[in-house]
Amino acid sequence: MSLRSQSSNRPFPPSPRRTGVRDLRAWPRTAWHTHPAGQTLVVTAGLGWVQERGGQKREIRPGDVIWIPPGVEHWHGATTTNAMIHIAIQKAVDGKVVSWLERVEYEHYRD
To answer: Which residue numbers in the chain have pLDDT < 70?
Structure first.
């Protein structure tokens, strides 16, 4: 049996929703960033961290679902000793899903 769309190559209709899976080895992390419609992270494997600007760094584990509200500056990534895999779900607003800011400095990231 072959599953494919009769009308086009796309399996789903166009959508403003963007989803991606990230496999982060130990140490990698995002830069500080925001999402115009917020972001949901679903941790599927490993151990990681998430932090909102001005807040405490939080440990995240498989099964954790994290909601980051629209416009909140944050970063997320693997720990210094463990990899992490997560699904990131965000909606595009006027074609934009993220605004990248500066790098996360070592003092915010280290254990």
So the answer is: 1-27, 108-109, 111
- Pair 92, 37: CB distance under 8 Å: yes
Domain, as residue range, for 28: 22-106
Q: Name the 3-class secondary structure at 108.
A: helix
Domain count, the chain: 1
The 10s digit of each residue's pLDDT in 61-81 is 999 999 999 999 999 999 989
**44 lies in a domain?**
yes
CA-CA-CA-CA torsion sign (80, 55, 75, 21): positive
CATH assignment at residue 30: 2.60.120.10
